[in-house]
Design a protein that fits this description.
Helices cover 36% and strands 15% of the residues. It is an alpha/beta fold. Bound molecules: pyridoxal-5'-phosphate.
Length: 448
């Protein structure tokens, strides 16, 4: 590769600004916030490059929020999608099936942990999470779900309650305090509840909290049917629990008969290195939720994977008009053939990121932590390492500096964790260049 991204105008540039003005008149508020992405997309010049309407180019570390894991133009996915469209057209697969629909379910099961034997298709990740709660209630006859503060599971009215990443923005101020949910803090060794200081902390305090407080004072263990957890919490800032936490959770689960639902909508399909983030700790969930990368950059696709006990004789209905329509299915099938090499490349990106980014922690008091799993990296900004007060101002300024250098990652003004989430297939040379730009961008903000 000979060329790197280049930004030559202010951001937004003049043409982007014009379109933002129009956009601001017609869309609802959340659709016209432009701090995170202050340019209007003109197209993609290659797999990993975005071009805006002012001619600026950026390295793409968004990858459609993880839904384009094989770059912008996976030829195989496109061809399979078009071919299936020509053959089947739009079809309602929950009522009238075609061979690829069955093949995709078989391939997903073959990819999943051993105990998984069944598939319930959905269109979006949100629906997969909602459906899994229905299955859990049907199977266990218990009403409650134990979830973790800071996780993200989508924007349905019910799930806004399990979605507590940032109450003010992510839940749009409409978090519904629905019954049937209890929460513990998400286990983190960087930010542990009820304790302060630099850490690393013992995240099994969360297990103690569940055992000593929640189960004693808030909810009977026999009322809890399932534990809903992201094995790596993406929106929260790419946090991953320790093995000791998982061991503690497994002990509680066995003791009380709780099902384990792993939301791998963002962390799965190679994003975090292994096929499933849960493989990092040998997890065997009763239900595994997939979405985003599963669509392979094609049409919307998601699913609930589950055990025979939960799904074989279930009366739960999770599907709908658009689930697994044949063209989307064909695209997802083609994507599965791309997964292994993409995953190996993601591990190469992990090595590069872990080589370049962590030294920032020692160089700057405002860089609290750097985390990376596969093609998924986060930089956490704080006011200082002792108090770990979130530093949203530095994070936001850093994002703008990175953009000026041609790196487009994930940021919002109220966030203090910045993350990059490129295609798993991003050219290692471009990823290395991007990480070097991120290091420079920290300097642009903090060295002056
Ligand atoms: C972990 C997780 N669960 C669920 C969802 C919701 O998926 P969707 O946006 O496809 O409804 C997301 C989306 O970001 C997610 O990251």
């Amino acid at each position: 590769m000979t060329s790197f991204p280049k930004v030559t105008t202010e951001l937004p540039g003049p043409r982007s600004r014009e379109i933002f003005e129009r956009q601001g008149r017609v869309f609802y508020r959340q659709m016209h916030l432009s701090e995170g992405s202050p340019f209007i997309l003109d197209g993609k010049t290659s797999e990993d490059f975005l071009r805006d309407v002012d001619g600026n180019t950026f390295a793409n570390h968004l990858s459609a929020w993880g839904a384009s894991p094989y770059g912008a133009f996976p030829k195989e996915v496109r061809e399979a999608t078009v071919e299936a469209w020509d053959r089947y057209g739009m079809e309602i697969s929950c009522f009238l099936q075609s061979p690829p629909v069955v093949e995709l379910a078989e391939r997903l099961i073959a990819l999943a942990p051993r105990n998984i034997t069944r598939v319930a298709p959905t269109v979006t990740g949100t629906e997969a999470v909602e459906g899994s709660i229905k299955f859990a209630r049907e199977r266990t006859g218990r009403p409650m779900v134990l979830a973790f503060l800071g996780q993200y599971h989508g924007e349905s009215t019910y799930l806004a309650a399990t979605t507590s990443t940032e109450l003010s923005s992510e839940s749009s101020g409409y978090a519904s305090y629905v019954p049937g949910l209890v929460f513990a803090p998400y286990p983190s060794r960087y930010r542990a509840p009820f304790t302060s200081g630099p850490g690393p902390h013992d995240d099994t305090v969360v297990i103690d909290y569940i055992e000593q407080w929640l189960l004693r004072h808030q909810v009977e263990p026999t009322q809890i049917g399932a534990v809903l957890i992201e094995p790596i919490a993406g929106e929260l800032g790419v946090y991953a629990p320790s093995q000791a936490f998982w061991d503690g959770l497994e002990r509680l689960r066995r003791q009380h008969g709780w099902l384990l639902i792993c939301d791998e909508i963002q962390s799965g399909m190679g994003r975090s290195g292994p096929v499933w983030a849960g493989d990092l700790w040998g997890l065997e969930p009763d239900m595994l939720l997939v979405g985003k990368g599963f669509s392979a950059g094609g049409q919307p696709m998601a699913a609930i994977l589950g055990t025979d006990e939960i799904m074989a004789d279930s009366h739960v209905y999770t599907t709908g008009t658009y689930v697994w329509e044949p063209a989307a299915v064909a695209g997802a099938l083609a994507g599965l053939d791309l997964l292994e090499p993409a995953r190996r490349n993601a591990l190469e990106l992990e090595r590069i990121g872990l080589d370049i980014l962590p030294p920032l922690i020692d160089q700057y008091k405002e860089v609290g932590d750097v985390r990376q799993y596969g093609a998924w990296a986060a930089i956490e900004f704080v006011t200082n390492k002792e108090t770990k007060q979130p530093n949203t101002a530095v994070q936001a300024a850093f994002h703008q500096a990175a953009l000026r250098r041609g790196v487009f990652g994930i940021s919002a003004p109220e966030k203090w964790v910045y993350r990059v989430q490129p295609a798993l297939t991003m050219a290692p040379e471009l990823f290395r260049w991007s990480c070097e730009q991120l290091v420079q961008a920290v300097g642009d903000v903090l060295d002056s």
